[in-house]
Design goal:
Elements: E1 7-9, E2 15-17, H1 34-38, E3 54-60, E4 66-72, H2 74-77, E5 82-86, E6 97-98, E7 105-106, E8 112-113, E9 119-125, H3 128-136, E10 139-144, H4 151-155, E11 182-190, H5 193-199, E12 202-210, E13 222-227, E14 233-237, H6 242-253, E15 260-264, H7 280-290, E16 294-297, H8 300-306, E17 309-310, E18 313-321, E19 327-337, H9 345-354, E20 365-372, E21 379-380, H10 387-405, H11 409-416, H12 436-445, E22 455-456, E23 459-460, E24 478-491, E25 500-510, E26 513-519, H13 529-541, E27 546-548, H14 566-593, H15 598-605, E28 607-608, E29 611-612, H16 617-627, E30 631-639, E31 658-671, E32 676-687, H17 694-713, E33 747-750, H18 767-784, E34 790-791, H19 795-798
Parallel strand pairs: 3-16, 12-34, 14-15, 17-21, 19-20, 26-27, 32-33
Antiparallel strand pairs: 1-2, 3-9, 4-8, 4-10, 5-9, 6-7, 11-20, 12-18, 13-14, 13-16, 18-19, 22-23, 24-31, 25-26, 25-30, 28-29, 31-32
């Protein structure tokens, strides 16, 4: 009889079971940084300290678009305690711009400023307040220029150009855009949408407005730059992508990359806002100029100006369907406001265009997505990355169509849901599970929360009412609504980008026990990658003791902690490298002891699908015996299957490596007299392929859902439409959900393996941000009867007559 699953017979007839593995793939391993963070003991980048360090500060523009006619730094330089004041003229090389995709962002403003808060000058002083006071003494004379704030002002005949020299800078998008103030344009055309529209029994149209959001991470931008004896610099910084930062920093400093050594410091959240540079170059410039370590920490006000935001958008959609509820066509136009600099706008455009139809089967589509250059704040990556804006609009359209056809909104969606084998509007075949209909079925089947939960024997529980503890209502005029939504999000870098990650794995015997060290450059920004890497190493090598080395640039790139890619990519790199290390161990054992050495035979037989499946006893002893005083140390890269750029005329191409899906049901209660909303429950069902760490997966889904709630009813950066000045750069006026706003969030996790991915896993973190927002809006619409075509919903929108 064959041994039971998870066991293997040893030559002596002994058995070991895989059930003993601790902290491997599929287990809810606790985070090593969790206790430190909740107790306030975790060291964030803002806690960095050097005994003789200076403090850096950035002077930022007070206007959105103007020529700089003069800068006088004399009074700032004369301030006691000031060591340096730098402007654009003090930069050490001719490379004075940087950027994620296009090198269009000046290190310090040159000639003119293009948005409110653009860096103009730098100060280093012996105290942070001294640096701030000195910066306030710098006199900058501005000659105002016309402000470009929307599509009309950006593309009108004779419009002021935000960037006059695009082609001179090697901008490869400039040749195919309709206007110099368009960053990038991507059409997606498949079939004949015009002919299909003529055949439709029902056609609905809608115009939607999506506000600008801030990533609102709790740890502001911060870092410490330390000049080195070799003329280089060591930078300790909170970031999302060490090697991308390095690529942009070194040319400006005039240093080879090997002399700019970067180490990840504690990161207090990111959500896309740390993909672009903030203080990195500025801190290094001041450190190299003064010869002293320089620390820079933004306050909350400065943080609102120090990173990119989510693109606001205007979306116009047309959907058609037959009487029996089958979609005939989709036509849409998505205009994203990229602000003053490109950042990742081209990639956001590609995402918005390719995912504009949602997780539905539609043969005939005509889509246009574009991003503008304006004098509004720069926009770039934020959780959801272009798919969030599209999902808000297409899900509203699906509800409109269902109402016109007299169909249940969930049944209508399920009737048109894609599945494995469906074809995207880009022509790409979805070749992994796509359980869209099942996700919708699960959230609809969940029991609804009880009505009128605020009613208690002691009176009203204000926490359960719209307005909460503000004591604005006791239930008068409160109505309930239920809404549904589902979304599709790509995973990983797309459109032919060379997406890879690197892992270094070392195994050695220490005090007679095998120990593994894993070293990657992955940025741990709160997503839980620090547990995943150790779990994978334990599963692949069967060694309980795994140490993670600090992330830095002495190991190859891990890519960005974004696009829901790190578990797939860096997890894949750790898996790939561990497999190679394991084979080296086996080879070493065969050479040292021979095939039939009892100890080594035990280790070799105690395998399941090529993996060690025990965490103790003979296997660990055999591993230590095989290693002896040798260590096996390998560094390898891992790549996913290749993608393709989208055709610039038709949008066709296999642009994405993987898709993820999530569905939400929102239950809300609305005080229609006061315009207040209480989200009572926000249930989610999501396919994750494989839950490497189920506890972390649930946390990611709930975190993404909470951000979607903020987008729906709270979060918006308000920019003056005339002056392009930011009106609310603080948490006093920019509202984010607190624990009192966060409802119960039951989560239903599916694990349908994607055979192309390590362990069959699927990126998790972004998909729930897509569908949570339109589900809440759908519930509010049902409760109020209002159209509500913009997000976030404000109280004044809810007190209108339907």
């Amino acid at each position: 009889m064959a041994p039971a699953h998870g066991t293997r017979l040893t030559p002596a007839g002994l058995t070991q079971s895989s059930a003993g593995r601790a902290g491997g793939v599929g287990e809810s391993t606790l985070r090593p940084d969790g206790t430190l963070k909740v107790t306030g003991e975790f060291a964030y980048a803002s806690d960095l300290w050097h005994e003789d360090m200076l403090w850096g500060h950035t002077l930022r523009s007070t206007v959105a678009h103007a020529r700089i006619t003069a800068i006088d730094i004399s009074e700032a330089l004369a301030t006691p305690g000031v060591y340096a004041v730098l402007t654009h003229d003090d930069l050490p090389t001719e490379v004075r711009h940087y950027g994620l995709e296009l090198r269009d962002t000046p290190v310090l403003a040159v000639g003119k400023v293009r948005h409110h808060g653009e860096p103009v000058a730098l100060v280093a002083a012996d105290h942070p307040e001294t640096a701030r006071r000195a910066a306030a003494k710098i006199r900058v004379d501005y000659a105002p220029l016309p402000v470009v704030t929307d599509e009309a002002s950006a593309t009108a005949p004779g419009a002021v150009l935000v960037h006059e020299d695009r082609e001179d800078r090697g901008d490869h998008y400039a040749a195919h855009v309709p206007h110099p103030n368009v960053v990038h344009r991507q059409p997606v055309v498949r079939g004949d949408a015009a002919a299909a529209a003529a055949r439709a029994d029902v056609v609905v149209r809608g115009e939607y407005v999506f506000g600008m959001q801030d990533q609102a991470f709790l740890g502001p931008e911060s870092g410490l730059a330390v000049p080195a004896e070799d003329g280089g610099v060591d930078l300790y910084v909170a970031t999302q992508w060490l090697h991308s930062d390095l690529r942009q920093i070194a040319p400006v400093l005039g240093l080879p990359e090997r002399k700019v050594r970067m180490t990840l410091s504690g990161v207090g959240g990111a959500f896309g806002g740390r993909e672009d540079l903030s203080m990195q170059i500025h801190g290094c410039l001041l450190a190299l100029r003064t010869g002293k370590p320089v620390k820079m920490v933004y306050n909350r006000f400065e943080s609102f100006f120090g990173h990119v935001h989510r693109h606001p958008a205007k979306l116009a959609y047309e959907h058609g369907a037959t009487r029996d509820g089958k979609l005939t066509h989709v036509r849409c136009r998505i205009v994203l406001d990229g602000g003053a600099y490109a950042s990742s706008s081209p990639a956001v455009v590609g995402n918005a265009a390719s995912l504009a139809v949602g997780p539905y089967v539609v043969d005939d589509v005509d889509i246009e997505a574009l991003a503008l250059y304006t004098n509004n704040p720069p926009c770039g990556a934020m959780r959801g990355f272009g798919a969030v804006q599209a999902c808000f609009a297409y899900e509203a359209q699906m509800d409109k169509l269902a109402a016109e056809l007299g169909l249940d909104p969930v049944d209508f969606r399920r009737r048109n849901a894609m599945s494995q084998g469906s074809v995207m509007p880009t022509g790409q075949v979805v070749d992994a599970p796509a359980p869209v209909a099942e996700l919708l079925r699960r959230v609809k089947a969940r029991p609804l929360p009880p009505e009128r939960q605020w009613e208690t024997t002691e009176g009203a529980d204000l926490r359960a009412l719209p307005g909460g503890l503000s004591n604005t209502t006791h239930g008068e005029g409160v109505v309930r609504g239920v809404g549904y939504a589902v979304g599709i999000k790509n995973v990983g870098f797309s459109e032919g980008f060379d997406d890879y990650s690197t892992a270094r794995v070392r195994i050695e015997a220490v005090a007679g026990e095998p120990v593994v060290t894993v070293h990657t450059a992955m940025a741990e920004v709160g997503q839980g990658g620090v547990t995943v890497q150790a779990q994978i190493a334990r599963s692949e090598l069967g060694v309980a003791q795994v140490t993670l080395a600090p992330a830095d640039t002495t190991v190859g790139s891990a890519g960005s902690t974004s696009a829901s890619r790190q578990t797939y990519m860096t997890g894949g790199a750790v898996k790939h490298t561990c497999e190679a290390v394991r084979e080296r161990v086996f080879d070493l054992g065969r050479r040292r002891f021979g095939t039939y050495h009892p100890a080594w035979a035990t280790a070799e037989l105690l395998l399941e699908d090529g993996k060690v499946v025990t965490d103790g006893g003979e296997v660990l002893a055999a591993l230590a015996d095989v290693l002896g005083d040798q260590a096996i140390d390998l560094e390898l890269e891992f790549r996913h299957r290749p993608t393709q750029p989208f055709d610039l005329r038709t949008g066709q191409g296999n642009g994405h490596v993987q898709y993820s899906f999530a569905a939400h049901r929102a239950v809300v209660e609305v005080d229609t007299e006061l315009g207040l909303v209480k989200v009572v429950e926000l249930a989610c069902a999501q396919d994750v392929g494989k839950a490497v760490n189920p506890l972390s997966v649930t946390g990611q889904i709930q975190g993404g859902s909470t951000q979607g709630l903020g987008v729906a009813v709270m979060e918006e950066i308000v920019v003056d439409p005339v002056t392009a000045l930011v009106r609310n750069p603080s948490f006093t006026d920019y509202l984010i959900p607190t624990i009192l706003d966060t409802p119960p969030m039951p989560v239903d996790i599916l694990e349908l393996a994607d055979t192309h991915a390590p362990y069959g896993l699927r990126g998790v973190g972004e998909a729930p941000t897509l569908s949570s927002t339109p589900a809440i809006l759908a519930a509010i619409r049902q409760a109020t009867g209002l159209a509500l075509n913009r997000t976030p919903v404000r109280p004044e929108h809810l007190t209108q007559q339907p």
